[in-house]
From TrEMBL:
Residue span, Prolyl 4-hydroxylase alpha subunit Fe(2+) 2OG dioxygenase domain: 124-207
InterPro entries (alphabetical): Pro_4_hyd_alph_FE2OG_OXY
Source domain of life: Bacteria
The name this protein goes by in its record: 2OG-Fe(II) oxygenase
């Protein structure tokens, strides 16, 4: 039944009045426009080559946007550009002509009748012979921008067609030679300018801004009542499993309906009064139906990924089993080579350009839809969210495969998998949920608004209602707390957790977050929570923030350690019981760091070990700065009991502490500095290796107890033996290789492939001596630095 309601709803909306198309073209007399350009003067229309060449002399190479960057690349966009501040538009009939064109554009694009369009000049562009602009999508440069208007000035040229595409359709616009040609299209349409073959193509580009609109009403005869019935049925029936199996009991009803619109919008451009074409009609109807069904409706932005079983054109076969032929190649024995790149790799050029439009889609293997932004009910404001949408909640009149993806990736056959085409889309959506389930529907998306609602109930003296609503979050709240928006969510959740006065629910609200979310401004709330719920609760909460493994899994946590001293100071001075949070925070940070220290100290490869231990120095310094006296003493005791290689971490830690004013006078600094000084002094007191001493420390204990390692140890510890020829079978050679490499010994090992078995040749390298000289030099430098930081008393 669930699928039936969604399917019927999509059909009803698909049958609603289709207003307009994604692109339109209008021609007007050339005399309607008088255009002047600084440095050139008034342009006589139609344009001739001499005037156009003067325009080029005043122009610059046109740029284009890619993400946050503005680039110049004639391989992507090859045209000349004059900025709008150098243009003057006028003429006795221009304003009236433009107003009429905009009214026609509004109607042709299907915008609501109450919309008032305004055209804002963007640039004057000149395309000469061979110049072009590859397929692209305009950025919405203004919150009110809904599309682009291209005014082609009359000129004698060939080529330079403007091709606008959307939803699997393309419209080709060719400019007039004698009249002004106005071409309008929505901002999310991909479009391109084909290379000019002769003459010059000159256009005035303008941004289309929607100044005012109101949602269209349903009017008589609209299917609002039927749509409302579909919504009621959808939210009353069990959610349908995609493949019709997998549950022994009926699933609960869906929480939402997510109806995907056809056009793409930005966060700034998403609004009920700025929807495009059929989206405006369908969204207005669905919004009215939601009201009749006692539901709420919001607009959202969705990221869609689909994975298809796909066949590239050079792998297709006809019914006789022969390879089909493509691209008008005249070689009957080509077998698809016409689609290969010069290096012979099929489809490499397609992977570079992302054009897989001619691939044949067979079966949909997997799909994923995530809502990342939505508007708030009854408010023009929007908020970032993260909400995966299950199959049972999705509805669309236009399938994804009928639209143009913004990115595609093809994976060829790899033996066990492959021949898959991944396609990504950005679509807007109308999201509907029953009013009585509104709180959970918003909260499941990680909405700060839901937490603010809880806080509002607490502020209004309704703690029981707040607790009841908060408990309803338990089934899904654990999925929140990560990503770039976790900190604001934690900031909103913390005062709610304190105000609920219910320990288990408070712990549930705070548990999903990681320690990297915490900062100094959370200290007062954390101290209040610990005072309200007790030290055992605080220890458990802190443990949940470190996660099950307690490992530093990314740069965010390493960066967070720099804020740990300030956070702990703020906790200990806050009202409440901040130390109940500070102590386990430091303890957790130290435990994870101690585990990493132990792991790296066991690595024999010196360069790898030293690099890792040096990186741990600064985090260790922050932990020591944040710790109280008792914890500092315990950490110092552990550090002083570790092997000499720990100096590779301690010296960087002491340098980091010394860089913090006043820390070099702290007791922990003096204790560790004294310990390091004693170890370095002892190391430097050892006899210098003799010039003929080639002895090395054996490569640790062999766990397999083989008969090879005693012979290897005898060679390594020998003062006089530098080389060893060792006939060994392959498996035994590999074992010796691994033993040497794992220990990081300065011994080369090669195989002389003569005779049977082959001979393993071991040679001690000069690094036996250079490593020791480097170590002594480093120790002398570190010791000198320590003595400047903590000078010994005279006397």
């Amino acid at each position: 039944m669930g699928r039936g309601a969604r399917k019927h709803l999509a059909e009803l909306l698909g049958g609603a009045e289709q207003r307009g198309d994604f692109s339109t073209r209008i021609e007007m007399p050339a005399r309607a426009l008088r255009i002047e350009v600084d440095g050139v003067g008034e342009l006589p229309l139609p344009l001739r080559a001499p005037v156009t060449k003067k325009l080029i002399a005043q122009a610059r190479q046109a740029r284009f946007g890619r993400g946050e960057q503005t680039l110049t690349d004639t391989g992507v966009r090859d045209t000349w550009e004059i900025t709008p501040d150098r243009l003057t538009l006028g003429g006795p009939d221009w304003d009236l002509t433009l107003e009429g064109v905009l009214d026609g554009v509004r109607a042709a694009l299907g915008l609501p009748p109450t919309t008032v369009l305004r055209a804002e000049p963007h640039a004057l562009l000149v395309y000469g012979k061979g110049q072009f602009f590859l397929p692209h999508q305009d950025s919405e440069k203004n919150d009110a921008m809904v599309g682009s208007l291209v005014v082609s000035l009359p000129s004698h040229h060939t080529g330079g067609e403007l091709v606008v595409a959307h939803g699997g359709r393309s419209i080709i616009h060719q400019a007039s030679r004698e009249r002004l040609t106005f071409t309008a299209f929505y901002a999310d349409c991909r479009h391109e300018v084909k290379p000019v073959k002769s003459g010059y193509r000159v256009t005035l580009t303008m941004n289309l801004l929607a100044e005012r609109a109101r949602p269209a009403d349903g009017g008589d005869g609209t299917p609002v009542a039927d749509l409302a019935h579909c919504l009621t049925e959808h939210f009353a029936q069990p959610a349908e499993e995609r493949y019709g199996y997998g549950r022994s009991r009926p699933a609960p009803p869906p929480n939402r309906l997510v109806y995907l619109l056809d056009h793409e919008y930005t966060q700034r451009g998403l609004g009920w009064d700025r929807l495009k074409g059929a989206d405006a009609t369908r969204a207005a109807l669905l919004r009215q139906a939601a009201g009749q069904a006692d539901c709420e409706a919001v607009l959202a932005l969705a990221e869609v990924r689909e994975t298809w079983d796909a066949v590239p054109p050079y792998d297709r076969y006809d019914h006789y089993g022969e390879t089909e032929h493509f691209d008008d190649c005249e070689d009957d024995e080509c077998e698809g080579e016409c689609l290969l790149d010069p290096d012979g790799e099929p489809g490499a050029e397609r992977r570079r350009t992302g054009d897989f439009s001619d691939y044949e889609l067979n079966d949909l293997i997997d799909d994923e839809i995530t809502l990342g932004w939505w508007t708030r009910p009854g408010s023009p404001d929007g908020e970032r969210i993260s909400l995966p949408v299950p199959y049972a909640e999705v509805c669309a009149t236009t399938e994804n495969k009928e639209l143009t993806p913004y990115q595609s990736e093809y994976e060829g056959y790899m033996g066990n998998y492959g021949n898959t085409l991944d396609r990504w889309y950005r679509r807007a959506a109308v999201v509907v949920w029953p009013r009585q389930r509104a709180f959970a529907a918003r909260a499941e998306a990680g909405s700060e608004g839901a937490l603010k609602e809880l806080q509002g109930h607490l502020d209004d003296g309704k703690p029981e209602l707040a607790r009841t609503l908060a408990r309803s979050l338990a089934p899904f709240w654990k999925h929140h707390g990560s990503g770039p928006d976790a900190a604001p969510l934690f900031t909103a959740a913390l005062p709610v957790a304190v105000g609920l006065a219910e320990a288990d629910t408070a712990a549930m609200l705070l548990a999903p977050f990681g320690v990297e979310t915490l900062s100094e401004h959370h200290a007062p709330g954390l101290a209040k929570a610990a005072a309200r719920y007790g030290r055992a609760w605080a220890r458990e909460a802190v443990g949940s923030w470190f996660g099950p493994t307690g490992a530093w899994t990314g740069a965010d946590r390493t960066t967070w350690l720099t804020s740990l001293p300030g956070l702990c100071t703020a906790l200990r001075t806050a009202d409440g019981d901040g130390d109940a949070v500070a102590a386990p925070l430091v303890g957790g940070a130290w435990r994870t760091t101690e585990q990493q220290l132990a792991g790296w100290l066991g690595i024999g490869r010196e360069s790898e070990r030293r690099t890792a231990l040096e990186r741990l120095g600064t985090p260790l310094a922050h932990i020591l700065q944040a710790a109280d006296t008792e914890t500092t003493d315990a950490i110092t005791t552990v550090l002083c009991g570790l092997p000499d290689a720990v100096l590779e971490c301690l010296i960087p830690a002491l340098r980091a502490m010394a860089a913090d004013n006043g820390m070099s006078r702290a007791p922990v600094f003096r204790t560790l500095a004294g310990h390091c000084e004693a170890r370095l002094t002892a190391f430097l007191a050892r006899p210098v290796r003799a010039a003929d001493d080639w002895s090395l420390t054996p490569a640790g204990t062999c766990r397999s107890g083989c008969d090879l390692c005693p012979d290897l140890a005898a060679f390594l510890t020998s003062r006089t033996r530098r080389t060893m020829d060792w006939p060994l079978a392959q498996a035994k050679r590999q074992h010796v290789h691994n033993r040497i490499d794992t220990a990081g010994l300065p011994v080369s090992h090669t195989t002389r492939r003569q005779g049977r078995p082959f001979t393993l040749v071991l040679t001690k390298t000069n690094a036996v001596f250079t490593r020791e000289r480097t170590a002594r030099s480093r120790a002398e430098s570190d010791l000198a630095w320590l003595r400047t930081q903590a000078p010994r008393p005279h006397g």
